[in-house]
Design goal:
Length: about 375
């Protein structure tokens, strides 16, 4: 039976990018994904690339590497990933002070510029001027996340990698057991997003990796034209993540909802004219928890409609996925102590920016090369 150098679990952009970089480096790699049609966070992502948001020497370095990586990535992968630059508009609610909100971004590598209500509405005519006290703007990168993940997978297979659609049931010391077979490898790396914690727990491996249930509405191509990527300046999701991870043990009780759900009202229009509207985040410890889609959709439409009235009643479909995160907004990377053949590469808070440079660094590190950035992030 064939033994691989690496088995990568999870076919979202995290697993796809890492599998590609490992295969390109010369390892024999098997990529396992449970769904033939993606249902992961990559599939329902806004696709934003917040290059400007690096706030520490480490994250600023990775943002710079990401810019350089994306500028050549379409050519390297031989695919159209719809890489572009657009205006990000960060709305400031009517009851918030614009100057105070702007000051909270001063630590960013490129602090966003403060706009008056009039200037914000000139930049994005669909805005409801009554709902805001101002806005912030900065140039923002954007890709089509699903097409980018697929481009990575196709390049991975051209580099000699193998992919199978199969659900991993158990992580072993020398491979994984799936619904179809047991595969053997020298190393396993978990890139399964919101399912990573449960998957590792079933193998007796505790890890401080968490997830939200994220909900969005996706429209078909529409005539409405959104000029910018709209998000709130005060993102509640980060506060939810911080509050929900204060007691790790609470995540092992599947019935727990750690904190109340939040809605960050935003929207992005893709190049085909479809719009992603979102998002609700729920910190429910059970990855298979059922969410009331009808109630959620009404909440989403009303919340986004207050900021962008023209989007509230567009035809669209509600979707739900899991989004992984850590307790400190940095990903969990590296071999798990006590389980040296089992690795994790997950929990990215700024995933589409951080994954490409870190996947490349991780693959080189796996060959034995020293890497100060990966060393800083090892769990």
């Amino acid at each position: 039976m064939k033994t691989y150098d690496w088995i990568v679990v999870g076919g979202g952009i995290t697993g796809a990018a890492l599998a590609y970089e490992l295969a390109k480096t010369g390892f024999s790699v098997l990529l396992l994904e449970q769904y033939s049609k993606p249902q992961n966070a990559t599939r329902y992502s806004y696709g934003g690339l917040a290059y400007w948001s690096g706030s520490t020497p480490l994250t600023r370095l990775l943002c710079e590497e990401a810019i350089a990586r994306y500028q050549i990535l379409a050519q390297e992968l031989n695919a159209d990933i719809q890489f572009r630059e657009l205006d990000l508009l960060l709305t400031i609610s009517a009851d918030s002070d614009p100057e105070t909100t702007a000051a909270s971004y001063n630590h960013s590598a490129i602090p966003p510029r403060l706009l008056s209500v009039q200037e914000a509405c000139e930049l994005e005519p669909l805005l409801n001027r009554e709902a805001i006290s101002g806005a912030l703007t900065v140039k923002h990168g954007h890709i089509h996340p699903e097409k980018t993940a697929q481009a990575y997978i196709q390049a991975f297979e051209r580099a000699g990698g193998e992919m199978q659609i199969s659900q991993v049931l158990q992580v072993l010391q020398d491979g994984v057991k799936t619904t179809t077979a047991t595969f053997h490898s020298a190393n396993v790396v978990i890139c399964a997003g919101g399912l990573s914690r449960q998957l590792l727990k079933s193998a007796g491996i505790p890890i401080k990796l968490y997830f939200t249930h994220a909900e969005i509405i996706e429209t078909p191509p529409v005539d409405v034209r959104l000029r910018t990527l709209v998000m709130p300046a005060n993102v509640q999701r980060f506060q939810l993540e911080a509050e929900s991870t204060q007691v790790d043990e609470l995540w092992d009780e599947l019935g727990n909802e750690l904190v109340p759900p939040i809605l960050d009202a935003g929207a992005i229009q893709f190049q085909d004219g479809s719009i992603c509207i979102g998002q609700i985040s729920r910190a429910i410890a059970d990855p298979h928890a059922k969410v009331n889609s009808e109630v959620s959709e009404k909440w989403l439409r009303k919340g986004v409609g207050q900021i962008l009235p023209a989007l509230e009643n567009l035809p669209g479909t509600w979707y739900h996925c899991l989004v992984a995160f850590s307790s400190n907004q940095l990903p969990l990377i590296g071999a798990i102590p006590g389980f040296e053949s089992v690795h994790v590469f997950s929990g990215f808070s700024n995933p589409l920016v951080l994954i490409p440079p870190l996947a490349k660094r991780f693959a080189n590190f796996a060959t034995g090369q020293k890497d100060g950035v990966i060393t800083q992030m090892l769990i």
